[in-house]
Amino acid sequence: MSTWDNNPVLKVEHLTMRFGGLTAINDLSFNIGRGDITALIGPNGAGKTTVFNCITGFYKPTEGRLVMNRSNGEKHLLERMADFKITADAKVARTFQNIRLFGGMTILENLMVAQHNPLMVASNWTIGGLLGLGGYKKSNVDAIETAKYWLERIDLIDRADAPAADLSYGDQRRLEIARAMCTGPELLCLDEPAAGLNPKESLELNNLLQYIRKEHDTSVVLIEHDMSVVMEISDHVVVLDYGVKISDGSPEFVKNDPHVIAAYLGVEDDEVDQVEEEVGIA
Amino acid sequence: MQARQKDSLLVASVKDSLGAAVITFALACVMIGLRVDVASGRGAELFLEHRWLAVAVAVLVVFAGRLAMNIFFWKREDPPSLNLSGLMPKGGLGAGSSNIIKYGLLGLAVVLPFVLMFWLGARGSRQYIDLAILVLTYVMLGWGLNIVVGLAGLLDLGYVAFYAVGAYSYALLAHYFGFSFWLCLPLAGILAAFWGIILGFPVLRLRGDYLAIVTLAFGEIIRVVLLNWYQFTGGPDGLSGIPRPSFFGLEFTRGEGGFASFFGLDYSSIHRIIFLYYLIFAMALFTNFVTMRLRRMPIGRAWEALREDEIACRALGINTTNTKLTAFALGAMFAGFAGSFFATRQGFISPESFTFLESAIILAIVVLGGLGSQIGVVIAAIVMIGGFEFFREFEEYRMLVFGMIMVVIMVWKPRGLISSRTPSVALSRNAKGISADLVQEGHG
After folding, report:
1. pLDDT of residue B387
2. In B416-435, which positions are buried (b, 16+ CB within 10 angstroms) versus exposed (e)?
3. Pick from B305, B421, B428: CB nearest A113
4. Closest residue of B to A177, CA-based?
5. What is the pLDDT of residues A26-66, one digit of tens each?
6. A chain contacts of residue B286, beta-carbon cutoff 8 Å
7. Domains, chain A, with CATH or none
8. Which among A243, A252, B184, B223 would be 20 to 30 A from A234, CA to CA?
9. Which one of A88, A104, A112 has the shortest CB-CB distance to B439?
10. Residue A282: is its pLDDT beyond 60?
11. CATH number of the domain at B95-431, out of 1.10.3470, 1.20.120, 1.10.4100, 1.10.287?
C-alpha cells in the first residue's frame, strides 16, 4: 500500500473514454495522493490529455468514476459536474497544452478573472458592487493582493500592467500556472508545463511547483515529456500507453520497469510477443 | 538564366489600361451604345438609338482613369495607400489627448442647446437640436451594443429588435393602459432585457457567423411580428398619439399648468425639444456610467475574458452561460430605454423604423469607433449620423460619399478610431493602453 492510496485527493476508477469506435482510455484506475506531485507520462497519443479533459469536465467519460476528496471532507463526483463547476466547487484547476491566456488583457487582469467567483459573491452578483456597497471594495483589494502575491512568485510583478500576449513563452507558461492557482485549487492539473522551455526556465518551473506543493494545500498532477522534470520533482508516476496503465509507482520504480522501457524504446523483435502479453495489448 | 525583364512603369500601365479600355468598349457597345426608346412623336413605336459618342467617352474615361491609377497607385513599388496612415493624423491617442476629447465633448454636449439657441434663435436651432438628439440616441444604442459586441465579443446583428421592443412596450402600455413615460421607461428596459435573455438562450452554443445569422433572424422576426399582428400593434399603420414625457408632472403645453407658465416663461415648442435633448443626454450618460463601472467589476472582466477565450473562462470556473446572458440582457435593456425614448420623441412608431439597416448602422458605429471603446462610439456616431444628415445636399450621392468615408476610415484605422484597450485594473498609475492588435475581436 503506497502513500497515494491511503489518502488520495482524486480517485480515478475504471475510467473509459470512447470516441465512436476509438477507445482513447480503457478501464484506467489510479490514485492521486494528497500533497503529491503526480506525473502522468506516456508516448504520444497514449491518452494523457484525454484523462485531463475527463478530470476537468471538458469530456464526459463513457464509463468510470472520478472521486474528488476535498480537504474539508466534501466528496465530488467529477464525471457528473459541468466543467466550470469542477473548478468552482470541486477546486480542480488546469492549464492547457497550447497556452490559453487572455492575451488582450493585462497580466493582473488575467489573475483577477481567475478570482471571478469569490468576487461575484462579494459584489452581491454585481448589484452590490454597482451600488458601491462596502464588501466589494475590500474583496477587490484582497483579490489584487492575491494577484500580487502570485506575481511575485513568478517574477512578473514589474510587468503586471503589460498585456499577457507580450510575455515570452516561458513567462506565459508560468502566468498560466499562477492564474490557475488564483482559483484556489486543491488539485492543479498541468498539461505539459515544461514544453518549449529552456533549461533555466525549466528549473524555475520545478521550483515553482515545489513551492506550490509545500506552501499551499494543493496537489499537482502533470503531463510531461521532459523526463528531467518528471524524475526530479514527482513523487508518483503513472505511465499510460494506448489508453492503458502500464506502470504506476515511484519514479525509481517506473524508470526501471521493463514495460515502460518497452513502451518508450521498443523491444527486441523476439521479445515482442512476450511483452505484449504482459501489457495486455496482444 | 535571366529573369524576364519587367516592363517599365509607363509601358506596364499603358498595356494594362489598353486592356481595360478594350473590355470597356466591348461592354459599352451594348450597354451604352445601343438604346431602345419609345418614340414620343410617332405613337408608341420603339426605335433604336446609337450613342457612339457616349461609348467613346466611357472608353476614354476608363483608359485615362486606369492609367492614372496605375502610374500613381497600383503599379508603384510604394503605393501611397500604404502611406495613407502616415498622412493621416497620428491615431495613437495618449491618455491626455483622449481625456481632452472626452471632457471637451462632454462640455460641448452640456451647453449645446443654449449655444444654438443663442446663436440661431429658437426657430433656427430646432433642426440642429433635433439632429443632436438623434446623434445621442445612436450614441446610447452604440454604447449598449458595445457591451454585447465590444466587451463580450458576441456579434449581434439584430440589436434593433430590442430597440423595437422598448419602443413598442411604451407605445402599447400607453395605448392600452394609459401608463406614463416615466413608468414605462424602466418597464421597457426590463421587457427588452427579458427578450435579450430569450434570444440569448438558443444562441448560447453558437459562435461567430452562426451567431450573427441567428441574431439577424431574431431581429427580423420581431419586426415581422410587429408588422403582421394588426389587431394588437396596428401593423404597418403603426401606433400614433404616443404621450409625450412630462417634466416632473409638468406637461409641455401652452397655458395654465404647463411647463412654460409654471416657470414664468413664454410658451415655445423648443422647450420640449431641449428637454428631450437633456433626457437622452442623461440616459446616454447613465448607459456609459453603468458600462464603465461594470467593466471594472468581475462581470465586466468575465465578459472581456469571454471575448478572449471562452474555454479558458470555463477552466477558471466562470459560468459562461450566465455571463453571456447578462451581456445580452444588459445590452438589450439599454436598447429598450432608448426605444421608449424614441417612441416618446416621435409620438408615432411603425415597424418601418426598425429595419435591418438600423442594426447595421449601430453596428457600424461600434466597429468604426473601435470595439469596446466608449469615446470611439461617440465620435463614430457624430461622424456617421451627423455626416449622414449634413450630406443631404448631395442627395443620391450621399450614400456614395458616405461609403467612401467609411472605406477611408477602415483603411486608415482597421480596428476602429480608438483602437486601444484601457486596462480595467492596474497596479501603476500610468498603465498604458493595450494595442488592439493583441485584443481579440470576438467571434462568438
Report:
1. 80
2. bbbbbbbbbbbbeeebbbbb
3. B305
4. B316
5. 889 999 988 889 999 888 888 889 999 999 989 999 999 99
6. none
7. 1-91+187-282 (3.40.50.300), 100-183 (3.40.50.300)
8. A243
9. A104
10. no
11. 1.10.3470
What amino acid is encoded at A245 in this protein? K
Interface test with chain B among A106, A176, A186, by most B beta carbons within 10 Å: A106
With a pLDDT cut of 90, the percent of chain A lying above it is 24
How far, in Å, CA of A184 to CA of A145, rounded?
Answer: 14
On chain A, the residues whose CB falls within 8 A of the CB of B318 are 84, 113, 116-117
CA distance B380 to B145: 13
User: What sign for the dihedral angle of Cα B114, B119, B121, B127?
Assistant: negative
Q: Which residue of A has its CA nearest to B307?
A: A102
Find the residue in B nearest to A89 (Cα).
B317
- A137 three-class SS: helix
pLDDT, tens digit, for every residue of B279-296?
999 999 999 999 998 988
Examine the pLDDT at B137 and tell me if it is beyond 90. Answer: yes
DSSP labels, B163-207: HHHHHHHHHHHHHHH---HHHHHHHHHHHHHHHHHHHHTTTTT--
**pLDDT of res. A46:** 85
Name the residue among A94, A119, A163 with its Cβ closest to that of B298.
A119
Higher-confidence residue of B372 and B180: namely B180
Q: Does A49 touch chain B (CB under 8 A)?
A: no
Domain boundaries, chain B: 9-66, 95-431
Confidence category of residue B376, pLDDT binned at 50, 70, 90: confident
- Residues from chain B that touch A112, judged by Cβ atoms under 8 A, are 298, 301, 424-425
For B133, the 3-state DSSP assignment is helix
Interchain contact, B293 vs A130, CB within 8 Å? yes
Share of chain B above pLDDT 70, in %: 91
A172 touches chain B (CB under 8 A): no
**pLDDT of A123:** 77
Whether A241 has a pLDDT exceeding 70, the answer reads: yes
Q: Among the residues of chain A, which ranges form H helices? A: 3-6, 48-55, 83-88, 107-113, 116-122, 127-131, 134-153, 169-181, 199-215, 227-233, 251-255, 258-265, 272-279
